[in-house]
Each structure stands twice: as C-alpha cells, then as structure tokens.
C-alpha cells in the first residue's frame, strides 16, 4: 500500500451513546450534535451509531486513484458454515447504542442477523467524540466512562477534534483553533472519571501533518503534548496512545520523530502509540512496525502500542484500494491480553460494517458489507 495520506470522514456517528447529566445538573443527550464537513460531496466514513446524529472517524489510507462506488443489488444468502464466534473480552466495554445494534434489534428475522450479531454487535468497540461541542462534551464522556466503570469494564474513547483535521480534506472540521481545542480537551478530560480508560488520541493528527507549515506543526505538537498531560492528570488510570499511522505509511523513524515532538515519549503524557486505525494491515505487520516506532521513539520501556484489528483478517488489499475493498475480513477480537511484548491491546477502533462510502452510504451500517467482513466475502 502506498504511504498516502489517510483520509478521514466528516459524516458518521460516534460508536455508542448513553444519556447523561452535565455538570450543572441538567440533562443533555449523550449523542453528539451533528458535525458536517463544509464540503457536500460524498465522503468515506468510519464508526457510527444512530442515523440521527453524526461525527467523524478515519477511513483507510488510500492510493492516488479512488475506486468508483459499486452498487450491491441484493444481499448475499448466508453461508451454511462459519467459524464459531470469538470469545468476547471480559474487560473491554461494549456500548449499548450503535448502528449495528439498531440493525440487529430491527432485523431479527434476517438470515444474516445471527452471524452479524455474534461476530460484530457483541464485540466491544471504541466510542468516538468528533464534534466540537464544549458545552456537552464532559457529560457525554462521563456517560460512557461511568457506565463502563459500573460494569467493571474498560472503555475505549477517541477524542477527534483537532483543528485542520484531515488537512482540510474529506473529514475537515474540528475545533476552530488550537486555543479552543485546548479548552475542549480540558472538558473532555473532566469526563474521564477515575476508572480505567483507554484514550486513542486524535487519529491521523501526526501521520497526516504534511499540509501544515513548520510553525503550525510546532503548535500542533505542543497542543497534543498538552492534551496527553491533561488527560493523564485528570485520571491517572487513563492510558493515552498517540498516532503512529500504520506500517504502509510513514517510515518508523520519521513517525517517531513526530511522536517525540508531540510528547509521546514522555510518561507524563503518553502510554505509547496506536496503529492501523480504520486500515487493513495484518496484526503481525503492525506489531513489528509498532515496536520499530517505539524503539526509535526512545521513551521509557513502559510505553506500548495498541492495534486496530477490526478489519485486518485478510490483510491490506492490493494497490492501495481503501474504500470498502472486497475480500477483507474481521481481524482478531478486541482484547487486553495479546501475549506480545509491548503490544498492550488489540482494539476495534473502526466499527466493522460501517461503510467507507462504496458498499453503502458513507458512515452508515451496511449489513451486506458487515456480512462480507464476517465471512471474508
């Protein structure tokens, strides 16, 4: 796969939501308000929950040629045999509101439902916060972390509001400036609570930074370093991971240099790096790449990596195809026990079955695509 810029979407929804109380005691909705790109063009998309609300999340890195959307006439008939569903993590948190769960509840008689439910809907996945809504962000984050803590589970949350997100591309948006972003992060951190939580901090914010001037890069680095410190100070049990792209993108040494400037080598702001968010590279490739990045980063030995395994069961497609490529498959189930040195977790950051924009409308759960990921079709 070409080491091209990773495209992120501007329309989609957070993986799951719950109602929560804000700091002032009033009720607000845990779902983020609509965040739309100024562009009205169809966009590739990432994890989402309910069709009524939207946010953003990364799509895979793409080559210079964009594949044409392909229509799917009719759903596939279920295969008669399938591997048993993998065990669900006893520690990671699965939010109870998502597009896949909505579909499962509304389509009990669909012959694809049992496999989609057991292989995708039952697995824990990340919860994205991609809309710039300072007045409600604390209560919405708290709704997730408090519910997870009450059930003894570890949530995965994704703050995704860095200014000039996606270098002004398909997923442009975020906070209006870094000062506003710093304030938003303060409010985000206030919702983390005191339980264990994994923070996947700003996908693509470091791997995709070439569009910024030297001065703007320096300011983004400083803001991300500050974000890590604020998140960890607010909750010492929070584990914060920084953007390392993926093994088919930037060289490990080059990515480590960016990570170092953003504070990822300091235990005061970082627990390590994340790779492969919304991409397809095999786990072994990502683990090797992550260790190379960590070695070049030269931080404390406690730093580790988390890998998005949601769609990497068959590896990356040929020629850098990125939009719902055929023949992909679910990867290893989310877990905090990888059995690998310096690899802290396999996570589902991108929710499988939510289209990049070719097999379904961008950002929407597409049962045919989900079924293909389950069966490797």
TrEMBL record:
<keyword id="KW-0119">Carbohydrate metabolism</keyword>
<keyword id="KW-0136">Cellulose degradation</keyword>
<feature type="compositionally biased region" description="Low complexity">
    <location>
        <begin position="37"/>
        <end position="89"/>
    </location>
</feature>
<comment type="similarity">
    <text>Belongs to the glycosyl hydrolase family 6.</text>
</comment>
<protein>
    <recommendedName>
        <fullName>Glucanase</fullName>
        <ecNumber>3.2.1.-</ecNumber>
    </recommendedName>
</protein>
<dbReference type="InterPro" id="IPR001524">
    <property type="entry name" value="Glyco_hydro_6_CS"/>
</dbReference>
<dbReference type="InterPro" id="IPR036434">
    <property type="entry name" value="Beta_cellobiohydrolase_sf"/>
</dbReference>
<feature type="binding site">
    <location>
        <position position="354"/>
    </location>
    <ligand>
        <name>substrate</name>
    </ligand>
</feature>
<feature type="binding site">
    <location>
        <position position="128"/>
    </location>
    <ligand>
        <name>substrate</name>
    </ligand>
</feature>
<keyword id="KW-0326">Glycosidase</keyword>
<keyword id="KW-1015">Disulfide bond</keyword>
<feature type="binding site">
    <location>
        <position position="249"/>
    </location>
    <ligand>
        <name>substrate</name>
    </ligand>
</feature>
<keyword id="KW-0732">Signal</keyword>
<dbReference type="Pfam" id="PF01341">
    <property type="entry name" value="Glyco_hydro_6"/>
</dbReference>
<feature type="active site" description="Proton donor">
    <location>
        <position position="204"/>
    </location>
</feature>
<keyword id="KW-0624">Polysaccharide degradation</keyword>
<feature type="signal peptide">
    <location>
        <begin position="1"/>
        <end position="20"/>
    </location>
</feature>
<feature type="active site" description="Proton acceptor">
    <location>
        <position position="356"/>
    </location>
</feature>
<feature type="binding site">
    <location>
        <position position="246"/>
    </location>
    <ligand>
        <name>substrate</name>
    </ligand>
</feature>
<feature type="binding site">
    <location>
        <position position="350"/>
    </location>
    <ligand>
        <name>substrate</name>
    </ligand>
</feature>
<dbReference type="GO" id="GO:0004553">
    <property type="term" value="F:hydrolase activity, hydrolyzing O-glycosyl compounds"/>
</dbReference>
<feature type="binding site">
    <location>
        <position position="279"/>
    </location>
    <ligand>
        <name>substrate</name>
    </ligand>
</feature>
<feature type="region of interest" description="Disordered">
    <location>
        <begin position="19"/>
        <end position="89"/>
    </location>
</feature>
<feature type="binding site">
    <location>
        <position position="322"/>
    </location>
    <ligand>
        <name>substrate</name>
    </ligand>
</feature>
<keyword id="KW-0378">Hydrolase</keyword>
<dbReference type="InterPro" id="IPR016288">
    <property type="entry name" value="Beta_cellobiohydrolase"/>
</dbReference>
<dbReference type="GO" id="GO:0030245">
    <property type="term" value="P:cellulose catabolic process"/>
</dbReference>
